[in-house]
Design goal:
The structure holds two protein chains of two kinds.
Chain A (H helix, E strand, L loop, with lengths): L2 E5 L3 E2 L5 E8 L7 E8 L3 E8 L5 E3 L7 E6 L4 E6 L8 E8 L8 E2 L3 E5 L2
Parallel strand pairs in A: 2-11
Antiparallel strand pairs in A: 1-3, 3-8, 4-5, 4-9, 5-6, 7-8, 9-10, 9-11
Chain B lengths: L2 E4 L2 E4 L5 E7 L7 E6 L6 E5 L3 E2 L7 E6 L2 E6 L9 E6 L7 E2 L3 E5 L1
Parallel strand pairs in B: 2-11
Antiparallel strand pairs in B: 1-3, 3-8, 4-5, 4-9, 5-6, 7-8, 9-10, 9-11
The chains are: A mainly beta, B mainly beta.
Chain lengths: ~120, ~110
């Protein structure tokens, strides 16, 4: 069974860069597609970015190029960087994975709360 | 694509049948998934392709619809079914988009 574990700082200062890592176990990052999704009480579930081991990436236009997703198949890790954060980026961030048709999220990490505050 | 769920909150009794609605702002064929989220947990995939249950999902959960109108039905609600349910489209992306959720409360 594929398991995902997010890690990263729980507190980031405004204007700085949020950096999260997702460690994948029980499967290879080459076997699935990956995304980051975040959740806030106000905006609900918001898809951030997508990647596949082939190098394909796609982003939510709403993030105005602040997000970068990457994959390290040697370590079975998926990473997210979000630059120039504001308090609006405070959220629970989920690493998610899927198989088959792109966009169906079969696997979810437990989520990690990131608070943006000075 | 904007996904709109209704109602926002539904109060029901255990054992009852319930139907949740999800509408897409434009046609998405059957590229729709449903997720269940319990407090403090990540969402869990229930249904994809509008009507196909994910692995291990009980048969009391069923999905239907195509185009812009979709429903998730739960027959004979169990105590563990009280949660928030989200629909999500994956027909036209980026971005993938979610509805705002329907919360099932115990009456």
């Amino acid at each position: 069974q594929v398991q995902l574990q997010e890690s990263g700082p729980g507190l980031v200062k405004p204007s700085e860069t949020l950096a999260l890592t997702c460690s994948v176990s029980g499967g290879s990052t080459r076997s699935y597609y990956w995304s980051w999704i975040r959740q806030t009480p106000g905006r609900g579930l918001e898809w951030i970015a997508y990647t596949y081991y082939s190098g394909s990436t796609h982003y939510n236009p709403s993030l105005r190029s602040r997000a970068t997703i990457s994959i390290d198949t040697s370590k079975d890790q998926v990473s997210l960087k979000l630059t120039a954060v504001t308090t609006a980026d405070t959220a629970v961030y989920y690493c998610v994975g899927g198989r088959g048709v792109v966009g169906v999220w079969w696997y979810w990490g437990q989520g990690t709360l990131v608070t943006v505050s000075s | 694509i904007v996904m709109t769920q209704s109602p926002a909150i539904l109060s029901v009794s255990p054992g009852e049948r319930v139907t949740l609605s999800c509408r897409a702002s434009q046609t998405i064929s059957t590229k729709l998934a449903w997720y269940q989220q319990k407090p403090g947990q990540a969402p869990r995939l229930l249904i994809y392709g509008a009507s196909t249950r994910a692995t291990g999902i009980p048969a009391r959960f069923s999905g239907s619809g195509s185009g812009t109108e979709f429903t998730l039905s739960i027959s004979s609600l169990q105590s563990e079914d009280f949660a928030v349910y989200y629909c999500q489209q994956y027909n036209d992306w980026p971005p993938f988009t979610f509805g705002q959720g329907t919360r099932l409360d115990i009456k």
